[in-house]
Amino acid sequence: MRFGLFGKGEARKDDGAKAEAKAVAESLKRQVRELLGLPETTVIAVNEILCADPSCPGTETVILVMQPGAKTQAYKLQMAMAEVTDAALAEALRS
To answer: Which domain of life is it from (predicted)?
Structure first.
């Protein structure tokens, strides 16, 4: 537990960033479900990954589509979640 003034601003900033990332992920999940015409039984996971390896593109958004009885499909976008556009998402889902 934190006491005093130290750290309170940072905790609020972190909570705000987490809430924003969650909202972006939920929005992307809805878009994926609509674009692919997926039923509610399909699980969609959206994660942002930062790769420190020089051969990696840096920040990447990974979308996993898990349908009962089917192999998991993975879609990758070479950008942060907040940077994903409708056009970029549609293009990634086509490949």
So the answer is: Bacteria
